[in-house]
Specification:
With 156 residues, this protein is α+β, with helices and mostly antiparallel strands. The chain has helices at 58-61, 103-108, 121-140, 144-149; strands spanning 27-31, 40-46, 52-55, 66-68, 73-79. The protein has a five-stranded antiparallel sheet with strand order 4-3-2-1-5. The longest helix is centred in the C-terminal third of the chain and has 20 residues, at 121-140. The mean pLDDT is 85.
């Protein structure tokens, strides 16, 4: 017969995307999508998944610790001189969400149906810990706190 070629199955392991040259720890970025669209944030580090870890800081402009894809940010020139951040707890696992229950699971456990997602105490403590480091660093740079508070013009 006819020779039929079989396609090889390859396991693809995603490699973290290289950071843009203008993105360094302490850089101020503008978020382009999501609930905080147009807000300016401070870049902390790149997570193993390739996503960027950013914070407002929450005390300054209300943006909590969050992961953002590099495609959804614009780097700006201001840079905050960040001291060492306690980063052992800041991993992708910290930001994983629980899977939504399926329809059958919801029917089996009707009494447990709370659709509201509550922020864990551990996450709140982590936010305070990071804010304690980032806020003083932001205040050292002249006018930076008010710059972070203001929204980007295109998203007003």
């Amino acid at each position: 017969g006819v020779n039929i070629k079989r396609l090889k199955k390859t396991k693809k392991t995603p490699n973290p995307i290289n950071l843009g040259d203008s993105i360094k720890p302490g850089s101020v970025l503008i978020l382009l999508a999501g609930a905080q669209r147009g807000k300016r944030v401070v870049f902390l580090k790149q997570l193993p998944s390739g996503l960027l870890l950013v914070t407002g800081p929450d005390k300054v402009n209300g943006v909590p610790l969050r992961r953002v894809d590099q495609a959804y940010v614009i780097a700006t020139s201001p840079v905050v001189d960040l001291p060492a951040i306690p980063s052992d707890k800041l991993t992708d696992a910290t930001f994983k969400r629980k899977a939504n229950p399926t329809k059958n699971e919801r029917e089996m456990f009707i009494d447990n149906s709370s659709d509201e997602t509550k922020i864990s105490a551990e996450r709140i403590a982590l936010q305070k810990e990071v804010d304690a480091v980032v806020v003083p660093a932001v205040k050292k740079v002249d006018m930076l706190a008010s710059y972070l508070r203001s929204k980007h013009v295109d998203f007003l």
